[in-house]
Structure prediction request, 255 residues.
Amino acid sequence: MDAERQVYETTLRQLRALLEAQERLRRAAEGMAREARRELERVAEALCPEEVDRLRVRSPQGLAALSPRQIADLVIRKAAHRSTSSAPVPIRMEARPRAALDRTACDEAEVGVLKGQSPVAACQEDPRQELIQRAADLLVAAGYAVERIPAPIPLPDGTPFQPDLTIREEDRLLPVEVEDLSRPPEEREARWEACYRLAGGDLRFIAPDPGTLDRVRSEVFYWLGPRPFSLRMTDLSYGRGRYGEAIWRIQRGTK
Prediction:
């Protein structure tokens, strides 16, 4: 009897160990499936924002109403459409390093302001600074209080950061990035991260044209990942400053 009992207990322990291993595998597989779906939804948000918005209009579930295969099909169709119908958008590369260019341009603008010259006139020789001032004009016309040459703002770790522009929204100072994709990806993402940290996830972008705005939107959505955010974006051909908050072509958020 003792031998039979030992065999029984050994077999029982082995079965329990097998069941526990199966449960661990099941939980791991479910976790991987959830993570894979989250990443798939991130790609859909980045590549197919209009389709995602239409899904949310039809159902509060949005992407959650689709199976992973349906989301993948949506992304594949959009990618195929882009590859066949979208012309490449040239990216203007700056001749000087970004930091040196910005500092020089801002110094020139400050000197011009001291001489009674407008910030726009002081920056006209640099195309990017001219673009920033056009964005500032749009925001001013829409009723925003705009700082055209913001002073550096310390990040939580003490590092100084100078946004392209700053605006006031409900007594909050928010950075605005004027994004033409001329800066290297790692530099612009570092600047976006600084804006995210400064504004607690409230992001504001202005692009020069609709094509650039579409690319910026895709990059920003993918860069954000699953983090909470509030996002407003527009381009200079859409927002004319005549419609107040309607200057923002894209208004999205998860906060």
